[in-house]
Structures are given as structure tokens and as C-alpha cells.
Amino acid sequence: MFENHFIKTLVSGRYVIRKPSDEAPYKLLVGFHGYGQLAEDELSLLQGITGNSDWMCCSIEALHPFYKEKGMVGANWMTNRNRELMIDENISYVNAVITELGDNHHLDGTLVYHGFSMGAAMAVRTALFGSHEPAAVMVLGGNIPPEHKELEKLKKAHIARGNTDRLYTRKEFERDKKRLEESGVPFDHCCFTGGHEANEKYLESAGVFLKQLT
């Protein structure tokens, strides 16, 4: 027999930003990357959204890096090991990033969370349980965590998938749309030709959604 213990420690997280060319204050779009990606991958996706040049884009990198094939480095938000503890620590991490952004930049208070694939769950959980209330949440290629029943704090939502995406299935997509309806959360949805990725139709749809928030 053994005793299982946990101890708090300090670990450095990393985030990357793109500041608008316009003068402050800025609206803030915070993104969470997919499994095995890095902050630059999500930032590239955020920057590609149509007409968002007046938003500050911030991509937060997961705290758990690992080696992929050919020595490439990726990062992972969590596994099912110590799951609840990892969720709490991830949300605290995101809270700290957004607080620092607010301290260092002139923001106008408009905050949107965007998550791709595994990052979709991070976007939703941060909206539901984080200390910074968003105006909306956007998820692409990843589901709304099924254990969360009350989704009202999402405020507004944009959900999307490619029609050949095998990781975020049509069944999951339709279930998430129904859950948003039942929670009374206004939402836009986009199903586009493609797989587990963004394409031009998605970027345009996401841009229209962001424009509605201004």
C-alpha cells in the first residue's frame, strides 16, 4: 500500500500575442490550441479570422510539453490522470494570463474565448469557471464537455466542424447544438467542407460572429 500526495509548485507558462495596429483600447480574443500543437498554431488560426484586425489575439500554450515524431515538440492540456486537479490548475493559469494582459494593455472589456480541438474544452471550462467573464465562446472541432449541464455563462457561442471530421463527429456536433438550445444560449453554427481543421468558410463565419459582438 502507498499514500498519494500532491504538492503545489511553480511552473512557467507561455503565451503569445498579436496587438492590433489600431489604437487602444482593444478587444481581446484568447485562444487554446489542440493536442500536440503550440501557441503559434492557435495564434495563426486566430489571425486568420476574417476582419479581426482590431482585436488583440492571445494564444495560451498548454503547460505540458512533450516530444512528438521526429523530435518535434507539442503540448497537451491534460490527460485523465489527476483530471480535476489539472482542470483547476489550467483555469488558474488562464486567469493569471488574462489578468496580466489587463495590467499591461488597455483593453475595453470585450473578451472572447476560442478553442480548437482539445482546446475547445478549455475555452468552455474557462468561460464557466474562470474569473474573467467572456462575451462569447467559440469552439472548432471539439465538443462542449458533456459533464457541464448549465451553460448560460457562455453568453453567446459559435460552434463549428468540418463535415469529414472524425474526431468531432456529426453526432457530437448536433448534441452540442441541442445543449446550447436547452440552456438558452444564442449561438451560430458552421459546418464546412473539410476535416479536423479550419478553412476559409470557417474563418469567414467566425469573423461574422465576432463582428456581431462589436
Give helix % range.
Answer: 25-40%
What is the correct CATH architecture? 3-Layer(aba) Sandwich
Order of helices and strands: EEHEEEHEHEEHEH
CATH superfamily (homologous) name: Alpha/Beta hydrolase fold, catalytic domain
- Could you list the spans in which at least 5 consecutive residues all have pLDDT below 50? none
Secondary structure class reads alpha/beta
Strand order of the largest sheet: 1-3-2-6-7-8-9
Strand percentage: 15-25%
Domain module tally:
1
Explained architecture:
- The protein has a single domain (15-212), classed as Alpha/Beta hydrolase fold, catalytic domain (Rossmann fold, 3-Layer(aba) Sandwich), CATH 3.40.50.
- It has five helices and nine strands, in the order ββαβββαβαββαβα.
- The model has no long low-confidence stretch (mean pLDDT 96).
- The strands form two sheets. Strands 1-3-2-6-7-8-9 form a seven-stranded mixed β-sheet, sandwiched between helices. It has a two-stranded antiparallel ribbon with strand order 4-5.
- α2 crosses α3 (118-129).
- The N and C termini lie far apart (58 Å).
- Helix content is 33%, strand content 24%.
Compact overview of the structure:
This protein is 33% helix and 24% strand.
Per-chain topology:
Layout: E1 15-18, E2 26-32, H1 39-48, E3 55-60, E4 64-67, E5 73-76, H2 83-104, E6 107-116, H3 118-129, E7 136-140, E8 157-162, H4 170-183, E9 187-192, H5 200-212
Parallel strand pairs: 2-3, 2-6, 6-7, 7-8, 8-9
Antiparallel strand pairs: 1-3, 4-5
Helix pairs in contact: 2-3
